[in-house]
Amino acid sequence: MFVLSKFSDLIRVKPQDFNKSTSDALEDEINTKYANKVVQNVGLCICLYDIHTIDEGLIKPGDGAVYIKVEFRLIVFRPFVGEILEGWISSCSEDGIRVKMEFFDDVFIPKEYLFEGSVFVPKEQAWVWRTEDNELYMDTNEKIRFRIEEEQFHDLLPRIAPSNPNLKPDEASEYSANQIPPYALIGSCQSDGVGLISWWE
Amino acid sequence: MKVENSRDKLLTCFEVFQHLKETKSKHRKSIVGIEQPMLRAENVETIVLELTGYLQKSPTFNQTEEGIVEFMINMGKFGLEKAELLQIINIAPTSLVTLFSLVEECDQRYTEEQTLEMIDIIRLTLGVKENIEPEEDVVVEESNN
């Protein structure tokens, strides 16, 4: 589920942070820059794990800050294809099941990847797995186990704030909600042992 | 920014959880010598809080370093792949069917006694909660028949 990724970066330490020790200041800067952000083809960065090397600081004319080249490792959320993960169903739709994991909500299980014999019941807004002698419901907020089938990275352009100042707040939030996630996972529920945890225990 | 190696090492949830706990309680000495709790940016606090919340609900919460070391020593004889061991530690399966979903071709590679022994090792070392045990026994019996 988690990996360590090695990065090198030129970190800018602001003059007001000069009272901190170099490693503390770098830790704060690295965390602020990377935590809870998706790096293309790397994954969702959680936070700094350790710093390997710190080069000499450089200064630039006209800038009070110091620039330091650092090699460090980050904890990154990047499950491998085939890995089994656990989450909670956040919503069901005709197309499939959306799963949330608290810190990461862009997991989707399309209907093609559900158990054979699963149908969507619009009245209940839930998927039902019909076996020979049983009906198993997949309701929202149930704990679900799924296998990772695919990972999708989307390189997004910087988000432009809606230029229309007359836009109502809820319209603005809708605007940002429609954005494609930069990192999304496609899961499946097709083999024994996956699906709702309560089924198998 | 340069990505030197996007997969340097694999981490278990337990290691991540330990790291989060350590950084949370970290105090810093400023140059003047006063110790104070670390102040972090909002995005750091968000992800740390959410991830801690998630991990607290997983088996990770009850695991100990000694338990995992013991697990690794005991499981050594089965020759499982690294990725399989990693997933077993993260999920701590207590039923055969869950274990089978984590270990590839489990029924061909291992005999029934071996898989049952694995479940026993998992129960003993990976901080499995006691309250789900009665149900587990039913599952084990069913698969025996």
From TrEMBL, chain A:
One of its GO terms (biological process) is transcription initiation at RNA polymerase III promoter. InterPro entries: NA-bd_OB-fold, RNA_pol_III_Rbc25, RNA_pol_Rpb7-like_N_sf, RNAP_E/RPC8, Rpb7-like, Rpb7-like_N. GO terms for molecular function: DNA binding; DNA-directed RNA polymerase activity. Keywords: DNA-directed RNA polymerase, Nucleus, Transcription. Belongs to the eukaryotic RPB7/RPC8 RNA polymerase subunit family. PANTHER family: DNA-DIRECTED RNA POLYMERASE II, III, DNA-DIRECTED RNA POLYMERASE III SUBUNIT RPC8. This is DNA-directed RNA polymerase subunit.
TrEMBL record, chain B:
Its main location: nucleus. This is DNA-directed RNA polymerase III subunit RPC9. Belongs to the eukaryotic RPC9 RNA polymerase subunit family. Coiled coil: none annotated. Residues 1-129 form the RNA polymerase Rpb4/RPC9 core domain. SMART domains: RPOL4c. Transmembrane segments: none annotated. Pfam families: RNA_pol_Rpb4. It is found in: Nucleus. GO terms for cellular component: RNA polymerase III complex. GO terms for biological process: transcription initiation at RNA polymerase III promoter. One of its GO terms (molecular function) is nucleotide binding. Gene3D superfamilies: 1.20.1250.40. Keywords: DNA-directed RNA polymerase, Nucleus, Transcription. It comes from Nadsonia fulvescens var. elongata DSM 6958.
